[in-house]
Amino acid sequence: MKDDTLKRTMKLHHLVIFGVAFLTPMIAYTIYGVIATSSHGVESGSICLTIIAMLFTALSYGHMAKAYPAAGSAYTYTRKAINSKLGVIAGWIVLLGYVFFPMAIWLIGASYFSAAVPAVPEWVWLVGFIVITSLINIVGVEVGSKINFVMVSIQVIIIIAFLIFTIKAITEGMGEGTLASFSPFYNPDVDFSYMVAGAAAACYCFLGFDALTTFTEDTIDPEKNIPRSIILTLLVCGGIFLIVTYFTHLVHPSFDYPNPDNAAYDIARQVAPSVFGGIFLIGTIAGQFAAGLSAQASGARLLYAMGRDGVLPKKLFGRLGKTKTPINAILLTGIIALFAIFLDVTSATAYINFGGLIGFCFVNIAVISHYFIRKKERSTKGFFMYLVFPIIGTLFCLYLLVHLDRIAIILGCAWVVIGIIYLLVLTKGLKEEPPELGIDD
Known about the structure:
- The chain has helices at 12-23, 27-30, 32-39, 43-67, 74-81, 84-116, 122-139, 141-171, 192-206, 222-251, 263-271, 274-309, 314-317, 327-337, 345-374, 380-401, 406-426.
- With 441 residues, the protein is mostly helical.
- It has one domain: Amino acid/polyamine transporter I (Up-down Bundle).
- 56% of the residues are buried.
């Protein structure tokens, strides 16, 4: 009989590397202009708001990873802790983020390549990203982890260099001319709604810490290592994003950019030697490559979990290849990413944020259902950990959700409607339970 179980090879440091690579340290520079314009110049305040929202949700993911150590993330947690039919809807919505996330990542990387080498069409770079990343993920997560370590190291070195040039420019009188200022966090002339809008845009920077739960069946001692890796990844990247936005604001307080997508690149050319512009470009591309590697791997594992359960076609998605990786799911995410040729970065990221925030809400509610209601964990600690904190996390996510781009909300709701129709077909009008695979505790 064919063994269709994932190979447990990942330890805590592998998970953190994948998590940091997925979030991409350089991403704060990549979409800095978008956050700056959305928040009207209180970028660091927006980042802080997002970190708070994500921390409550990260705790919920950690709790559910202990309860159900299986691949599938929000899909598995919702169907096990709340309701199997609702789990299908949760999985469908989360697919919006997991499967389309690589598309946005590779689109950003291809656009930077195209800017550097205009003679080569952008779609060529996009296809190159897809093919190389897919081949690495088919080989396995161990190889991907080693490549991601190199990519993350490159990003950290470039970020440190950028910060040095930025601090030097500030001390020489550029921007606010001071290294200590509260203006990146709060401006009395800026309405709080703009800070929230910036936080909603900044969600894209943080989508990915939850993807670590999809590696549960690849991980050694997942009940301990998955929760730890989630919190560590969020804190490490949150700290990097906060430092990046703080000093970038100080050197360029204005949020009026001709092209917000390239704002940080323009600032780099102003504060650093001309050669650094090319180095910054290399770091950005390395970041996108590393993030795409992690995003595709986790998205494929969600497809595998749903295929293994029979929610998606089992013969296509519920089988592993000779390398013990979900090859068909990996290939599908690559094919879907080709649609990025017809999208721009802003629309792609907003669309993904919708799926991510809805998925976060489902996981927070799953914690309440599993621990507080079913298991009756109602001590003082349980009251806060399994009721109050998940409620706060849900409210934060809903608050950010309503501040997303209007078009993204409309398209996201359309995706939900399609999912509901699919559920009705799958369950013959809700008369039958969705297919399910038993999970050993």
